[in-house]
Write a structure and sequence with these properties.
Layout (H helix, E strand, L loop, with lengths): L12 H14 L12 H8 L3 H13 L3 E3 L5 E3 L10 H17 L4 H16 L3
Antiparallel strand pairs: 1-2
């Protein structure tokens, strides 16, 4: 797994890890049913605290992307099996991005290009 964490970033470490794991799933590097490394192993691999990795795993579990069973590894869940996927929450996140871009003076055209490029990364493969 190719997880890169930037300790100098303003983004909290657990959020960086969560995003990196989502990228790995979206890119197809982690498939339905694949086990993730143990919390201890991933903490050692990424130089993160055990609690940071645990928080990231719990975040993905809340979103229905991982299944975590007591005393076992976290397992990637197929999107059709994922519970709690809420389009309203995704819509809110997209709206937050649009509002932030607007406040920062990013043009509608620039924002459309950013969305288009990122959509192509994930949806052109399907």
């Amino acid at each position: 797994m190719n997880v890169k964490i930037n300790p100098k970033s303003n983004i909290p470490l657990y959020q960086q890890l969560t995003q990196q794991l989502l990228f790995e799933i979206a890119r197809g590097n982690l498939q339905n049913g694949d086990p993730l490394p143990s919390i201890r192993d991933l903490a050692a691999e990424t130089n993160l605290n055990l609690h940071t990795v645990h928080k990231s795993y719990k975040e993905l579990q809340k979103k229905g992307i991982l299944a975590i069973k007591p005393n076992s590894k976290a397992i990637v869940k197929k999107s059709a099996e994922a519970k709690g996927i809420d389009l309203q929450q995704i819509s809110i996140k997209v709206e937050q991005i649009i509002c932030e871009a607007y406040v920062l003076g990013i043009s509608e055209h620039q924002l459309q290009q950013i969305f288009h490029e990122n959509l192509l990364k994930y949806y052109s493969k399907r």
